[in-house]
Design brief:
This is NXPE C-terminal domain-containing protein. This protein is an alpha/beta fold and 255 residues long. Helix content is 35%, strand content 16%. Strand 1 and strand 2 form a beta hairpin.
Amino acid sequence: MYVCGCKNVALSGHVQRTPTLDGTTVHQLTNNSAISQCLSGKVLHLYGDSTIRQWFEYLISAAPDLKKFDLKSRTQTGPFMALNYAKNILVTFRCHAPPIRFGNLPVSQARYIANELDGLVGGENTAIVIGVWSHFSTFPVEVYIRRLLSIRRAVERLLTRAPGTLVIIRTANPKALSLYETLTNSDWFSIQRDKILRTIFKGVNVRFVDAWEMTLAHYLPHNLHPQRPIISNMLNVVLSHICSPAGNFTETKKL
């Protein structure tokens, strides 16, 4: 699924909507009240690399009522936590375990996503986002396959004990390529892992945010860490999936 970078035409008094390739309606939730309404009573866990950390950073900047709790953690690796007590919202971020190319990661914080998922209760008010790709592109593909199979089994266990849990997978995205990147870590490696990701999670009850297509469709230049308008589009897809089961977009129509 993807949302193009073109300007959407908003109908008077209604939230902007864009259909995706799978038929899901993507609501443009871009301000504090809309995001807070969507996440009200929810727990959102973000697991992955710095492209997922971007989503955490976007949410706390776009929704100031979501207050970041100081865990004295490192800027790159986290873990991070944000709370909105009034709306009963919890958002967390944790980076995946090695292989990673971050400068420093305390051993105590090297957590495998599969282990983290096994420790979750889950349920209808819980949403999980997983984004694992960039740090694996310079390693043998077998390493990536084993990691994804481990995560898939943990997702299946989670959905077995808590079927109402929403699981969202972020795909890879194209990036700006220097000569060095082109020779050692080009988009060719990323697209191979992207195909593997989609194949491994085929048939599992998860949703995808097609970051590859959303980046290609946008007029902004490619970047390992997409610029804010693209991140906003991606979070609109995530939040629309979170809100859709309840069908409650009443307050967002004021956008």
